[in-house]
């Protein structure tokens, strides 16, 4: 089976600073990969490269059979820590903008789809509100629905619950778990290790721009190979 996403010795610099050092990993269709690691280790940069939000300087990156961005528009969806919703638009308009502009849907079609997705993320009654009128957990579920409106084949999550109050984390993770159960290919940067145990096929650990170790949850939680990963897990578990 061809990989959904394949990084081959990916190198990236910010000026003189090498932020990614020969990062290699393959994610199969339907696989759920969790990426963890200390702050500044390059996790966001990896997912931003996959989403075609950052260029890279060395190695190769194959996303759905081509360079990032060569896949059809919207085929890679991304959810950010800070939601990144359009604050001046209603929830409904946040969801319909992309499908109308980029997928060529009529307003009616886009709205039907948006309502169905708001149902799926369990906020069917919030369509007319502006993001600022919603809780953080609700805003993040809007962001997930907005990404899903574009019918992505791969979903990227960059610390989607890190900006949320503790009581709202579960409602976002629940939606992500349902998406996982439906077969979505997912790459999730998160330190929610309960989620990782339940959902991840594999967990990757990054440190200082390198992908240090990848293993199944069972492997890494019982016997991580690298001491850096063991130390990291000791701190967060
Ligand atoms: P993580 O998500 O693991 O916390 P990032 O990928 O955000 O790490 O960042 C990795 C490193 O790259 C950090 O040292 C960060 O300061 C640096 N960095 C991130 N974005 C930029 C940028 N646009 N310009 C310069 N340095 C950056
Ligand atoms: Mg980050």
Alpha-carbon distance between the termini? 35 Å
Low-confidence stretches: none
Q: Provide the succession of SSEs.
A: EEEHEEHHHEHEHEEHH
- The count of β-strands is 9
Number of helices: 8
Organism: Aliiroseovarius salicola
Domain ABC transporter: 5-233
GO molecular function: ATP binding
Protein name: Amino acid ABC transporter ATP-binding protein
Please provide a written account of the structure.
This protein is of the alpha/beta class. 37% of the residues lie in helices and 24% in strands. A six-stranded mixed beta sheet has the order 5-6-7-3-8-9, with helices on both faces. A three-stranded antiparallel beta sheet has the order 2-1-4, with helices on one face. Bound molecules: adenosine-5'-diphosphate and magnesium ion. Magnesium ion binds next to α1. The site of adenosine-5'-diphosphate has 10 residues, from α1. One of its GO terms (molecular function) is ATP binding. Keywords: ATP-binding, Nucleotide-binding, Transport. Pfam families: ABC_tran (PF00005). InterPro entries: AAA+_ATPase, ABC_ATPase_HisP-typ, ABC_transporter-like_ATP-bd, ABC_transporter-like_CS, MetN_ABC_transporter-like, P-loop_NTPase. This is Amino acid ABC transporter ATP-binding protein.
Topology, pairings included?
Layout (H helix, E strand, L loop, with lengths): L4 E10 L2 E11 L4 E5 L6 H8 L7 E6 L12 E4 L11 H12 L4 H14 L15 H14 L4 E5 L7 H16 L3 E5 L3 H7 L2 E6 L2 E6 L1 H6 L4 H10 L1
Parallel strand pairs: 3-7, 3-8, 5-6, 6-7
Antiparallel strand pairs: 1-2, 1-4, 8-9
Helix pairs in contact: 2-3, 2-4, 3-4, 4-5
The structure holds adenosine-5'-diphosphate (ADP) and magnesium ion (MG).
Family: Belongs to the ABC transporter superfamily.
GO molecular function: ATP binding
Protein name: Amino acid ABC transporter ATP-binding protein
């Amino acid at each position: 089976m061809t990989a959904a996403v394949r990084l081959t010795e990916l190198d990236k610099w910010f000026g003189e600073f090498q932020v990614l050092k020969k990062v290699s990993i393959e994610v199969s269709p339907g696989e759920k990969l969790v990426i963890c690691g200390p702050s500044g280790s390059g996790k966001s940069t990896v997912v931003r490269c996959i989403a075609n939000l950052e260029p890279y300087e060395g190695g190769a990156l194959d996303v759905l059979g081509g360079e990032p961005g060569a896949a059809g528009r919207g085929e890679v969806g991304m959810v950010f820590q800070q939601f990144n919703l359009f604050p001046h638009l209603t929830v409904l308009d946040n969801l319909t903008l992309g499908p109308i502009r980029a997928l060529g849907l009529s307003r009616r079609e886009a709205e039907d789809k948006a309502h169905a997705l708001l149902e799926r993320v369990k906020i069917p009654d919030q369509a007319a509100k502006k993001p600022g009128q919603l809780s953080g957990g609700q805003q993040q579920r809007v962001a997930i629905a907005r990404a899903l409106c574009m019918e992505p084949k791969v979903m990227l999550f960059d610390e989607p619950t890190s900006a949320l109050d503790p009581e709202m984390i579960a409602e976002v993770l629940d939606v992500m778990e349902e998406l996982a159960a439906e077969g979505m290919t997912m790459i999730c940067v998160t330190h929610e290790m309960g989620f990782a145990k339940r959902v991840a096929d594999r967990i990757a650990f990054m440190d200082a721009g390198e992908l240090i170790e990848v293993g199944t949850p069972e492997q890494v939680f019982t016997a991580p190979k690298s001491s850096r990963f063991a130390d990291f897990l000791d701190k967060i578990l």
